[in-house]
Design brief:
Length: about 300
């Protein structure tokens, strides 16, 4: 066998078919299924969909914008409005100091997740099946990226690692430890007999906070996966109802859910960053800057 065939071994029959009769009843498979292998690594139907959607999105944006102009075209204006809207939304949440650096991550998460969520509504996604040569069973040829738990876990881990970088880079380890475990009471206004025992209480609360921090990737990934996977199964269940265009409302529902889930994911990551990095930006300013900022225009 030639080396390239060993590297890219396709465990599929070449002929694809429309959705078999059992597909609407059984719904979407719980796990993404490998289309081929690159060496020992499987490449699943969800991975191929994710790559394709991301590539198409990049190409479309580049074609729409082309060369940016001072007087924007319609396509450039749409992209600029999206960018400006996200920047305006996240800046007060994450804090002015970290906003320019967190913005590329947050808008990338939002747009990537949004179009991956909507990819399940594209023609052919979830409706074209192939028969595996290894198992002989029918499987989806194209599957939405976020209907695979591996994809949503990867997104959550990227968000978590980026969050850790931002808080360490722009808040610092000392401030992070103080924010999590420090005594939040005002020492001047709190009696000593109450203030010092509060250290134990806030330390215990900090331990609970650490548990909740490590649980964030789990909640982010499960929330996104559950909504998209459930939506795909709903669309499969409704696929047999074609009289009077009855499935149409479910398409609009999936459009709404896809947008909300992308927005919530981005917003939660913004809040996680802002909970630490947005504490007292003014304390890091140079003397006299606060007075200048508060001066009337």
């Amino acid at each position: 066998m030639p080396p390239f065939k060993k590297l890219l071994s396709l465990p599929l029959l070449l002929a694809a078919t429309s959705m078999p009769a059992f597909a609407a009843e059984s719904g979407v498979a719980p796990m993404a299924e490998p289309l081929f292998h690159v060496g020992p690594l499987p490449v699943t139907n969800s991975m191929v969909t994710s790559w394709t959607v991301a590539l198409v999105f990049i190409v479309v944006v580049r074609l729409v914008i082309r060369k940016p102009k001072l007087i924007p075209s319609r396509g450039q204006a749409v992209v600029e409005n999206l960018v400006e809207s996200v920047r305006t939304l996240i800046s007060p949440i994450v804090g002015a100091k970290v906003a320019p650096y967190a913005f590329p991550l947050l808008i990338s998460l939002f747009t990537f997740i949004l179009f991956q969520n909507w990819s399940g509504l594209f023609p052919g996604v979830g409706t074209v099946y192939v028969r595996s040569q290894t198992t002989g069973e029918w499987m989806e040829f194209v599957r939405p990226g976020n209907a695979d738990m591996n994809g949503t876990i990867a997104l959550a881990l990227v968000a978590f690692i980026s969050w850790f970088y931002f808080i360490m880079r722009y808040a610092g380890p000392a401030f992070v430890l103080k924010d999590i475990f420090g005594n939040k009471a005002n020492k001047k206004e709190t009696p000593a007999i109450i203030y010092y025992p509060l250290f134990l209480i806030f330390f215990a609360a900090g331990l609970i906070e650490i548990i909740s921090i490590f649980f964030r990737p789990v909640s982010l990934s499960f929330r996104l996966f559950g909504n998209i996977f459930g939506g795909e199964n709903l669309m499969h269940a409704m696929s047999g109802i074609e009289k009077w265009g009855l499935p149409a409302p479910f398409y609009f529902l999936e459009l709404l859910i896809g947008f909300v889930q992308a927005f919530v994911f981005m917003l939660l990551v913004s809040v996680y960053i802002g909970l630490i990095c947005n504490h007292g930006d003014g304390h890091h300013d140079e003397p006299g800057q606060d007075e200048h900022k508060e001066a009337p225009h």
